[in-house]
Amino acid sequence: MDTAENQPGESPLSPIYRTDPNGYGMFREYEGGFPTYDPESSIHMEQLCDSHNLERGDRDDMWHPRIGNSLRSINESYFKPFLNATVWRLMGWFYNGGSNQKSIDDLNNLVHNVILADDFDHADLQDFNATQELKRLDASTIFAEDNWHTASITIRLPCEKVKAPEERAPEFRVEGLHYRKLTEVIRSAFAETTAEEYNATPYKLYWQPDDDTAATPERIFSEIYTADVMLEEHEEIKGQRRDCNLETVIAGIMIWSDSTHLASFGNAALWPIYLFLGNQSKYLRAKPNAFAAHHLAYIPKLPDTIQDYYKKTFGTSATAAVLTHCKRELMQAIWNFLLDDDFLDAYEHGMIIKFPDGVLRRVFPRILTYSADYPEKTLLATLKFLGRSPCPRCLVQKATIFNLGAKKDRHSRKKTKRVDDERRRSSIESARKAIFEFGRSVISAAVENILGMFSFTPTRNAFSEKLSRFGFNFFRLFVPDFMHEFELGVWKAILTHLIRIIYEVGDNCIQEFNKRYFRLMPTFGRGTIRRFSNNVSDLTKLAARDFEDILQCIIPVMEGLLPEPFNSVVLNLLFELATWHAFGKLRMHTETTLFHFDNSTTRLGSSIRKFSDECCSAFKTYDLPRETAARTRRQGSKIARASVASSNIGNTVSGGRKQRSFNLATYKLHALGDYVDTIRLFGTTDNYSTQVGELEHRRIKRFYSRTNKIAFARGIAQHQHRERLLHIMQGKRAQFKCESLPKCSPEVHYQVGQSRKDYYNIAPFLSTHKNDLALKDFLPRLKAHILGRLLGNETVDGKEQEFTQVQHNALIIIKNRLYRHNVLRVNFTTYDLRRDQDSLNPRTHADIMVLSHETEENPHPYWYARIIAIFHLEVRYNGPELDDRSTRRIDVLWVRWFARDKNFKAGWSAKHLPRVGFYPQDDLANAFGFIDPNDVVRAVHLIPAYHFGRTKDLLPPSTARHKLENDEDWEWYYVNMFVDRDMFMRFRGGAVGHKTTHEATRCLLDDRDKLDRRPFTLEREHGITEDTDNELMDEDKAHNLGEGVDQDSGSDTASESDQSVPGDLLIPDNLADEMEEYGYGDLEQVIDEEDDAVDSGSDDEVQDFDDNEFDQRDH
């Protein structure tokens, strides 16, 4: 029964409604009343499935919108505005078929969902004309108010030494803003069928572990509508007095924007703004085929004609500094335009919208997050790119960034949080007055003296101008960007410097590094770990997911490549990086995991400083070959431009490698310290990951090929509107897939094929391999295993029970056949309560983990094995122990067991991966065995311990090995605890979704770093989680800015120099090095468009996903 109670100090008028705990001990708390609309009440297990091979059900129909009604009624023309259902289906296939180059799946879709549909009639296509049908669709009145519009934007132009009030300054008009009205986008979103999935009431989610009612429940952080930001906004709205009895709802607006190239060749680019609603579950928002992204606007570039207009107006060309200023002004002017009066009225008074349940509610739009890469963040926050205070959330100075995780760093972040106050706004006005009324340059000392301390730019912020009167602090919008800041930022920079060090070590180390990755690294899962490129050390054509894979697999690769003590320092750093990465990617956090994440940040900061001091300083490192080539290209481009301007052809490009050191003074390193607080405020990082926006770019790239390539922005907008209309009309339709196995029910634990075509006759099979040690006592042990399962006798220490010869004889194997299968699918519940699947086969993905039966000191919760064969038998038992003499099917895995290296300290306190190896041939009783597929927990990723090499001593030639192994085994393997999120939590222990293994894995909770063993306060105990100051930083020796920092690319002097140098030198070569090393994206919006200083981080950073693979690859 749901209960209502008042917490101490709360008004009796604001009760807290608490739901009963579910089967996992989770319950919700709603402030002020139980929700009148709960979309999650209709969710079934099938809708929590992330694997393609699991059956997926549809949500219970709770309502039918205006189009949904017609779709469900055969008496109405559900195919309108088309003339008949045949055309509707055909046009829907054209737009929703996936890509321009149709695939086999698209062809299957055409046949099964279009041609074979009951309402498809080829006679209806006699006079079919695609162009005419598209015009009919464009003329439709369905959602007509939510169509695209075009507008022009004006900005004021400054000029040095020209003095005039700003309102009299010349205006330049930028054409081509394609946009939709914010309020209409929101109304349309709530009118679509997907609105039935929107949460109207935010709540707090708690977990009562292990049915311990005496323990204090832990807060769970996952969706944004369970995080503090929506709860705060909801309570603030409820607290306002209104002459209205309608229920109030927050429309949680989440913005993404990023410029993307539309073609592999050429300069065609589009800069879209996407709007998502945080009321919808992130598991749906992340899927492109859910159409959760609402295209809000396509931002025009500053046209080249501005130079002509500028020269005509002022008699001189605009400098690069002026053009940069104009780009900032354009972005803010566009947002000023989008935040129109209708939106401001809705922001203050709300919009009355009919919800899925037919009830009218007053909806208040609130902009919660803005996801963008760092250059765009600075543009939106009106800050200098890589300035003295580079962070959009706080005023931490570049000189102190290296203190990541230290007490003083935590204190500084909280003390210097950026606030949009009157002081900031007045300083901007003073700077603009100096520019326009006193004719000062936008990068003059006069402007710098006003704005430089806080890295402001002389541009009014649109969010401040429009929303500050409501107490809106726009600096809080700019959430961290995990993909660009860590995977393509800090981790990429550390990996790059590690490769520089490996080059300097020599002795063919770089060849060994590439060999271990490319030729020897096993894959895992459905795209979780893929084959690596030929030479990982080249770092070419690598996307964010590739850098992620490299990190998850690098510890065994790096082992032994560097001499001691550097080897230990690097391995410790890599372990901390992998741990921090895994915490950062979790889709569900508890207060405990956030506490551990915070401690991980402390340890990571300390490890990076130690790496810089003890390892980097010991090696004189230089550019990698690709870095030298990139620098040469930049210099050549700069000289070419200078030659054109000055007719000077005497310049030459300097060659040779440049010495490079490790840079600690970068914003992306600083950003790592903000993740824990951000998760508490906005939910886990997948809510606002820029990866979601990058995936949506595929849609506009697909539409680009269908435009005339000239006015492509308008054409893309038109195609986007058509596709969305067709998606709404068609609803969700199952896609036809050809698979060797049928889809599996998510409620079963495993699936094996039913075929009897491939089998072994036991006697001939054993006779053929009579000298194979792997088959010694094969039949007696197989029978013992089956008898144990039939008679209900539990195994003892994982070994089969002994049975009498009479019992063995009573077990009949029908036809003496072992029916062989190629694939075993294992279903499991993930740490965040999703249902997923591992696909196993003896040929490629054969390694599994089961719960152990260890009772000794320092037990390990898992045992590991490699599947030799998957088969089923048909058996009958004629003994007196069973009354049922019918034939039964028994599924069996024949495996080769791994033994744990108990002399090697592994785990979280030791900071080492668990190490296992095959049992030797003198211990055959433990080396081979049989497993019930029901006992398999998951597939496991085992990486060879390359440092120890291979051996032939463990087993003579045997059928138990794959032919490609050449009768050899690796001496040891490492268990990859970091291969995906779920695996990480299985080795941390205590995950919410791993309830069935809590008891078996309780020993893992004792394996913690010393920081993690400290007590901490839960929110429900003291109302707020205490700050976790970490004593580890007291042990750090003092650092100054010059130690371990690349003075060429990271010093404060370099970043400040761009305030007073000529415009064409705004991004010097040393700053370009930093931008390349830390993966900053295309800087067109920040610097001169002709500057080729940086390799663009385009949306190709997210590649090779299908529509659902964002969930499939549980990285």
In words, what does this structure look like?
It is a single chain. By secondary structure, this protein is an alpha+beta fold. Among the domains are: 3-138, no CATH class; 624-658, no CATH class; 750-1006, no CATH class. 33% of the residues lie in helices and 15% in strands. It has 35 helices and 30 strands. The strands form 5 sheets. Strands 16, 17, 18, 21, 22, 23, 24, 25, 26, 27 and 30 form an 11-stranded antiparallel beta sheet that branches. Strands 4, 5, 8, 9, 10, 11, 12 and 13 form an 8-stranded mixed beta sheet that branches. Helix 2 packs antiparallel against helix 3 (104-115) and helix 19 (566-585) packs antiparallel against helix 20. Residues 6-13, 59-76, 732-739, 1024-1068 and 1082-1115 have low confidence and may be disordered.
- Largest sheet: number of strands, sense, barrel closure: 11 strands, antiparallel
Helix content: 25-40%
Shape, per Cα inertia axes: globular
Determine the mean pLDDT: 83
Total of helices: 35
Rounded Rg: 32 Å
Features:
eight-stranded mixed β-sheet; 30 strands
SSE diagram, text form:
Elements lengths: L2 E3 L10 E3 L7 E6 L34 H6 L13 H12 L7 H12 L14 H9 L10 E8 L14 E9 L2 H10 L12 E4 L10 E4 L6 H11 L8 E11 L2 E2 L7 E9 L4 H4 L8 E6 L5 H10 L5 H19 L2 H9 L1 E4 L5 E12 L2 H7 L26 H9 L6 H15 L8 H7 L10 H6 L14 H24 L3 H10 L25 H15 L7 H20 L3 E2 H25 L9 H22 L20 H5 L3 H8 L7 H15 L7 H19 L19 E3 L6 E3 H7 L9 H13 L14 H6 E3 L3 E5 L2 E6 L5 E6 L6 E5 L10 E16 L10 E13 L14 E4 L5 H4 E4 L4 E4 L2 E3 L5 E2 L17 E2 L2 E3 L5 H8 L30 H4 L24 H4 L1 H5 L12 H9 L31 H4 L3
Parallel strand pairs: 8-13
Antiparallel strand pairs: 1-2, 2-3, 3-6, 4-5, 5-11, 6-7, 7-14, 8-10, 9-10, 10-11, 12-13, 15-19, 16-18, 17-22, 18-22, 19-20, 21-22, 21-26, 22-23, 23-24, 23-25, 24-30, 27-30, 28-29
Pfam families: Plavaka
InterPro entries: Plavaka (IPR041078)
